[in-house]
Amino acid sequence: MSFTVNEIAQQIDGIIVGEADTELTGFAKADDATVGDLTFAENEKFFHLAEQSQASAILAPAEFQSKTKTVIQVKDARIAFARVLPLFFPEKKFAPGIHPSAVIADSANIAGTAHIGPNCVICENVEIGDDTILEANCTVGDHSALGQATRLFPNVSVYHGCRLAKRVRIHSGTVIGSDGFGYVFDQDHHRKIPQVGGVIIEDDVEIGANCTIDRGALGDTKIGRGTKIDNLVQIGHNVVIGEHCIIIAQNGIGGSSDIGAYSILAGQAGVAGHLKIGPKSVVAAKSGVINDLEGNQQYMGYPAMPASEAKRQIVAVKKLPDLAKRVRELEKRLDSQPTKPSDEA
Question: Which of 48, 99, 171, 237 is catalytic?
Fold first, then answer.
């Protein structure tokens, strides 16, 4: 598939500096680019590399110009990059239909434009919307619903009573609606508390590979519109995640916690149960949240605290060895001084 520079610029509201009719046949990073490729640069270092490359054109911020290359100037090169890349690398298309090996309950309602892949299992009273794609070996439990243009990659399991809205994407190995971790100690053993809630996933959510999102104990676990969840994330029962959050790999969120809209939990952060994190919080990697956070600022450390306070503590801790050395020296000096005799009565 090929495009002219002008066609690409029209897609991203770019300004062309150079040859508008140059043909572009691919997109590559500068050190791999060949003639016909478009590349991108978002700072001077990468723009210099792009100029030295064989690429035919460069996607770059408005302040960049080149004497040797055609430049498509844009407001934000990274956003433009994300919008252009699918033009050169479109996702695989799936024809509507149900594979002969799929097992479909008679009570399931599957839109005619949906694609059901090999060995999928669709249980009783399931609703599957238009243009939804289930790749091989997916399972959808009783009374669950998948909205329009939702896509399950291979080996995704959606348990019973879960509702996925429009344009939800779930990657391989993820489990939606497994039992929450609910037990109560009864005399001499841990008695299981039945988990009878569900999971609600709103529009435009993407969930990475090998994640687990537990169903609610009574109410529902909820993932807000536009939220993006990385691989290897555990979300406990009755957790509520607000709109447009970013949850990065190896996070664990304890049951009944509430994550405010537009928050970011960086890699390996942990959130204890029954906590509230305010909107627009940024929790740094490896932080441990054990108390409520107000939001609208950055947090880090264990326990997680405002980043400015945590940094002061880190600096103070680094000074402890020198402080301990000074204390030992003062103790030696005091010990070496002769003891002053006490006055006689």
Answer: 237
